[in-house]
Amino acid sequence: MAGDEEVLESTSRITRSREQARQSYNSMSRFYGFLSNGSEKRFVKTAVEGFLKPREGERILEPGFGSGQVLAVLARAVGETGKAYGIDISDGMVEVTRKRLAREGLEGRTELTRGDAAALPYADGFFDAVFMSFTLELFDAPEIPVVLAESRRVLKGGGRLCVASMSDQGRQGAMMKLYVWSHGKFPNFVDCRPIFARGFVEDAGFVITGYEIMSMWGLPVEIVLGEKGP
Question: How confident is the model at residue 194 (pLDDT cuts 50, 70, 90)?
Fold first, then answer.
């Protein structure tokens, strides 16, 4: 298992403030779904169906739900006796997702909050599972352990955390170099940057029960499933 300091030191920093991030996602909220839904669909399907495996009646949280495509999937999976909760820093994303869920008749199975994943407004042990899709890597390196600690706090004993993330593991080819350069030059548009998701999840105290590295446009993507102890 990687140590906390080793994982942190190998992770590039994020310099924008929370308010700058909020404003950026507010600006992108009306078209963000067109950019993310297609490119991330395969990874989300693998992570949700193959790793998280949501069950009828569960309460599942998605921090950073964006345009709401995954939240709708989770809401259908937990059924009428469960509920999918979402928290996102962007007012615009909350509004776009609220309209999406209304169109799909899922308001009664969902609850949206505008807030910060580093300070979750939920009780200890409230959720059966937490799902993060291309969200963890948006936080500055020192904040990632805070976000994961909050996720762990709100999970029940034996609860599951599933993370899909751009990864700095695996093959580091020309596409990765180009992507990292683009992220450095245009961080508001190329917003995710690669991290070692498994290392962060392990260091947060989760037991890794599933792991896979996939490829998106020649870029490695980690899918990590961790379990909180009893």
Answer: confident
